[in-house]
Amino acid sequence: MLPKKSTSYLCATLLVSGLVSGILATTATAQTIESSSEILEVKADTSTVENDLPATEASEEAEKLEVETNTTTFEVKNTLPPITNPKKLADVELPPRTLNEFGKISLEVNLEPAQSPPISSQETAQTTATPTESTVKILPRVGVNFTSGPGVGYSSSFTSLEGFLPLSSGKTNNLPFLEGRVLLSTESALISSNLVLGYRTYNPKDNRILGGYVAYNTRDTGNSNFNQLGVGVESLGDWDVRANAYIPVGDTRQKTQETISNNNLSLSEPVFQGNFLAQTRTQQRQINRRFEAAMAGFDVEAGTKIAQIGKTGDLRGYAGLYYYDAPGSADILGFSTRLEARPTDNLRLGVSLSNDATFGTNLMLSVGANFPGTRPRNIGKENTVLARLGESVTRNANIVVDEQQDVESFTRQETVFVTNPNTGEPWRFQHVNLGIGTGNGTFESPTGDVASALAVAQPEDIVYVQPGTNPSIPAFQIPDGVQVLSTGPVQLINTVEGNLQLPSSGAGVRPQVTGTVTIGNRTTLSGFEIATTTGAGIAGTNISDVTIRENAIASSVSEGILLQNVAGQVAIANNTINNSGLEGFSLRNNQGQVTLSLTENSIANNGAAADDGDGVNVELSNSATGTFNIEKNAIANNSSNSGIADGIEIRIIDNASGTFNITNNQISRNQFKGINIQLDSTSSGTFNITNNSIQENLDDGITLQLNDQATGTFNISNNPEISQNGLFGIAILLSDSTSGTFNITSNTIQENQNNGVNIQLNDTAAGTINISNNQQIARNGLNGLFTTTSETSQLRLTIDSNQIYENSFTSLSINSFGSSNTFASVALNTLTGGSLGDLEVIASGVDDIVCLRSRQNTIGNLLLDDSLGGTIQAEDGISTNNIATSNVTNWSGTNVAARSCGFP
């Protein structure tokens, strides 16, 4: 009888041969076995047959066979078809372990002695492992995945919701399936999608899964929407190979932005055509267009398992190439490598690295989870390949999109009419050629006189006058909105294309006008010689927004320019106004608000026929107000028949007010005062007098006079010359119940015939006067600074950090009469060189008080005298001063405590 171990092994070997031959036709038996309806006789011999199966695996079947060892024989009837291609038992890959695994084989055992020779040891079965199952059941699942960006063809990280649906129920090794994804950009919440229809089959012989798929993708970039078809194949086993192709469909290149830039604009010199001014414009235009293009391409990768993670998890590594192309983009050939870890059946982790010349180097991380897992639950741990039948397809989930830019440049040349920025329409011209033209006002056919052009001119027209034979132009009136310009000076006009010089302008010859030019609203007069035998040279009443520039106005019977009740913007610039019978320029307003700019004019020798013929005269009354900028003018030699012609006279009465900026003027040799400002009634004003040269006027350089209840603020600063005037350099006079603040800083006040600065307060007037940092108050005919207060007036005086020296009488003289009060702070001054004294304080009224705080002055000669009445109070005494000579014998010696004079 055969041993049980040998008998079991022999039966198992025979059963494997029949199963493999009938079902797969690919396995082999150990040796040639006669397979038919004949009885297979096998003689068991323990000396020649060895059982390689463990005793525990074969014992159960061996016990069911009632056989005897040693000499007993048995017969096995094979009910399977005959073996047509017998093989050796050693070729069988995975032999069955028990006889129960041969459920379809019917065995008949004949215990008669066998006729066949015993099986030799060379016919012993040799086996290897094979999967215990070749079919599995794949379950539907859902999942979520996060992938960081940027990557190949996309910039944003994205989250995907995923679903996997097997299209086969029950156990199978051939799996059709449907897989879908919805991708959500984490930066912009834009949605893309994937839909994959795939098929996989498991080949037990090769222990490998083969598969393929078709896919449809969409992507929303925020600017474009793209669609794509995809196909791919895969081979999965101990090592994997994948290939994917991507084919965009529909509109694969979409414009996302277009900008037009105009560069290198060049304009020809303007020329007149008809009634218009034309330019040839050459423009280089560049159109920049941005596109997004979906790229067609493919990728391939191969990889293998690197390490085992736990019982069923693994770590796999892959490397591959990818290629993409789109019209308008450079070809992209790149490489990628990635690691994929599945520590559990429900969790997957990944890291990948890609590099190409277009999208650069990108490191992407991913993490995903799915439920249930991808591994079938009814499969053995050893079937690692078959367990992957339900994995998700590995492919690029995003449609690869490249950003493209097209630049188109071209040059365009056209003739355009220059545009009036006020109307948006072309400037229109009425042409005049004096004494020559006989036409209708076009450039080619001009009129011969100004009146004809004005008759047809419309608002915003320019009447452009050439001197021609230069016959005189009679008086004319400019309609509202019209400009009358001549070719004499350079004429610049404002256009949408920029400031342009008119052709033929700057010729130098000004047409002559023999009567008054009356201006209207929004009008301009430029480039004429005006000499009238009656009235003013230029006049305007109850108008607004006028410009008078670059005219020569001479010998007008009355004013050179007379404006009354003007409003808005009034510009008077670059005119020469000479020898007018009355004022050179006069503005008289009793209502409204005006902004006057009187700039760079020469105003001289006016006023001969007037009692008060000033160079510039401004009078505001009633409720009139405004801002007046008087800058960079030369105002000289104006005189009248009564001897009171000022360079600039400003008079404000009633309830009128104004702000005056008098800057950078040359005011000299006028018959009376250089600047004469007078405020009366309840008027008010602010005056900034800076950077002027005020010289050799026959009376004061500057006179500031307030009467009644007027108030004013005066800032006199940085004037380099207030000098050689016939009386005072600066005279301040406050009367009645007026009040004013005066800041006199950083000026040079010298060589005036009387006092450098003369201050006088009467009645109940109140003044605050700050005189500081003047480098020279020097060599004046009497006193450097002289103050007088009388009656009940009150003066608050600060004299700080001045150089006051070499004045004929005193450097600083403070005088008080009546019941007035003077509070004086005198500090850090140089007071030297006066022939009678350098700091002189005299109180001569019965009730008057002078409170003096003097500190750290250099004083040549100090005189304090309150012997005639009143009191001189010295705050903290006079000891902090450097005094060369002191005469205080007529001083009461009244010392008061700090801050008694009211100064900080």
From TrEMBL:
Gene3D superfamilies to which the protein is assigned, alphabetical: Inverse autotransporter, beta-domain (2.40.160.160), Single-stranded right-handed beta-helix, Pectin lyase-like (2.160.20.10)
Biased composition (Low complexity): 121-133
Keywords recorded for this protein, A-Z: Signal
Region (Disordered): 113-133
InterPro entries recorded: IAT_beta_sf (IPR038177), PbH1 (IPR006626), Pectin_lyas_fold (IPR012334), Pectin_lyase_fold/virulence (IPR011050)
Signal peptide: 1-30
Identification of the protein by name: Right-handed parallel beta-helix repeat-containing protein
Organism: Funiculus sociatus GB2-A5
